[in-house]
Amino acid sequence: MNNDYEYAISRRTILQSALGFGTLAAGGIMAAEQHVLPDGEPHFPPKAKRVIWLFMRGGVSHMESFDPKPALNKYAGKSIGETPYKDVLNPSRIRKLRIPVKGDGNGHTRTKLFPLQTGFKKYGQSGIEVSDWFPNIGSCVDDIAFIRSMWTSDNNHGAQVQFHSGRHFLDPRVPTIGAWINYGLGSLSDNLPQFINIGPRFFDKKDAHYLGPAYEAVNLKIDPSNPLDYAKPSNGMTAADQLKNLNLTNKLNRLAAEQYPLDPVIEARMKSYELAYRMQTAVPETLDFTQESAETQKLYGLDQNETRGFGQQLLAARRLSERGVRFIQIMHGDGAAGAWDNHSGLKKGHTKLSKQVDLPTAGLLKDLKQRGLLKDTIVVFATEFGRTPGTQGADGRDHHSFGFSVWMAGGGIQGGVTNGATDELGYHAIEDPHYVTDVHATINHLMGINPRKLEVPGHKRLDRDYGHVIKDILA
Question: Degrees (nearest 5) of the Cα angle 166, 170, 175?
C-alpha cells in the first residue's frame, strides 16, 4: 500500500477494478454489461462548467417580483368573476394547457383580487420591469433571462421536491438535478465535494435516491468560525497518524469491495473518507472571507445585518465554484414550508425576505461577471410555485402552481430577455408554458449532458422527467 495519499482511487476506478476480480454473481455481471458508468466527460461541448442554484423556499409571489400585473390594482377587491378575465377560472383552461394538477388547487377558492403590494420599475437597456423589492437584481437585468411561464402540478410544498426532481412528492422518487450533474460529470476538484447543499433541505432531505449515496449533496454550514463539523482530528491525532488511518481504512474497504464489488455503500464510504481528509484543509481556506477585499465583502452585503447571512452563503458559493465545485445548491427560507410562504402578511414577509437576498444575489452576479466566471457559470433563482392573484385572509396570498416566475443567468444564457407569459391576472401560464424540468433540460444542455444517456437500468424515467430545453433564452 502506497503511503502517499494521492494513491487513493476514484469511485469509477474502484468499480472498474472490482469488475475484474472474478467474484461477481451472474446478476452483477449482467448489470455491469447493461449499465456503463459515465466517464465524467460531457457528451458534447459544454458552454457552462458549474451551477449555482438559489432556491427560495415557500413560494415567492411572481406578481410582486418579476411578473407585474397592473390589472390586480385596477380590479382590487373584486371577484375574478366580476372582471373581464373571469374565464381564468374555467377548468378547461387548465386542460388546454395540459397541466395535470394534483387536487383542485387552492387558487380556485381565492377569487377576491388582491392589489400589488409593491411597485415596479424598468431597468437596463432591455427595460425589463422588476419590483421595488428587488432593485439590485433589477440593476442586473441585462444579464438575466426571466422565465414568466413556469408551472408545476403540486400545490403543496412537496413542490420543492418536484422542482428539483420533476416528480410529485408522492410519486416514486428520482434523483434531483444536482445529483444528476454529480453523477454525469467528472469532478473539477480533488479537495472539495462536487455537489454541495447550503441551508435547509426539502422534505425528504435526499438528492441521489437510486443513484446511490456517493451522489448525495454534502451539507455545508457557512460559519467561518466553525466551517466544518468534526473537521479536526480527535484525541490529539496528528496529520501523519490520520493519513495512516485513512490508508488502512481504504485498504480494508477495497478488500470488502472484492467480495461485494457493486455495493454502493462501500463505494460511498471510501469516497467520503478520502474527501473528508482533504476537506479539513480546503473548506476552512474556502470560507476564510478575510482573504476578500472590503469592497467585495460589501458587494455581498457582509457589512449589513440584514444581508450578512445570505451574503456569506453566496460569497462562499463564488469561492467554492472557482475552486471546482460543480453544483452549489443554496436553500433560503427557514421553517418546514419555507419563510416565503406568506399566507398572511405578504407585504411584511416579502419585504423582509427580499432585503435578505436582493443585494447578495446581485453581488454574486456582478462578482462572477467581473472575474470572468459568469460566462461559464449558470445561476438559477427559483421557487417551488407562485402566489394566488386572489387574497387569502386580509393580507396574504395562497399557493399557486398554474403560473409563476424564475430566472437564469450566465453560462450560455441570453441576458436582457423575458420568455413566456401569464395572463393579465398572473393566473395561468398562457405563452410558452414550461414545466419545472425544462429548467433541468436547459442546464443539462448547457453543461454538455444528454440526460437520456445517463439512464440507469431498472429505473425508467418518464418523458416529462427529461424536460425540454428553453431554446429562446440561449445565447
Answer: 40
Q: In the 8-state DSSP scheme, what is residue 153?
A: S
Residue 282, pLDDT score: 73
For 80, 92, 225, 329, 386, the CA distances from 165, given in Å and listed in that order, are: 33, 27, 34, 13, 18
Structural domain that includes position 335:
38-227+287-473
Q: For residue 346, what are the CA distances in angstroms to 117, 273, 349, 375?
A: 8, 45, 5, 35
Report yes or no on 269 lying in a domain.
no
Q: Check whether 266 has a pLDDT greater than 60.
A: no
Angle in degrees, 0-180, between the axes of helices 239-259 and 264-286, rounded to the nearest 10: 160
The runs of H, that is alpha helices, within 112-153 are 135-138
For residue 436, which of 167, 73, 144 has the smallest C-alpha distance? Answer: 167
Find the CATH number of the domain harbouring 191.
3.40.720
Share of the chain above pLDDT 90, in %: 63
Phi, psi (deg, nearest 5) at residue 212: 105, 160
- Look up residue 56 and give its amino acid: M
Domain count, the chain: 1
What confidence score (pLDDT) does residue 257 get?
A: 59
**Could you tell me the pTM of the whole model?**
0.84
| In a domain? residue 7 | no
Residue with cell 382590487: 76
Cell 494521492, residue located: 6
| Residue 51 contacts residue 326 (beta carbons within 8 Å) | yes
pLDDT tens-digit profile of 18-54? 333 233 233 333 333 345 689 999 999 999 999 999 9
Calpha distance 363→301 (Å, rounded): 8
In a domain, 28, yes or no: no
What is each CA distance from 447 to 46, 423, 442, in whole angstroms? Answer: 5, 33, 9
Residue 254 above 80 pLDDT?
A: no
Angstrom CA distances, 18 to 24, 222, 260, stand at: 9, 37, 8
pLDDT of residue 261: 61
Q: Which stretches of 174-280 are assigned E, i.e. beta strand?
A: 195-198, 218-219
Asked if residue 434 belongs to a domain, the reply is yes
Q: What is the mean pLDDT of residues 357-365?
A: 98
With H, G, I as helix, E, B as strand and everything else as coil, classify residue 214: helix
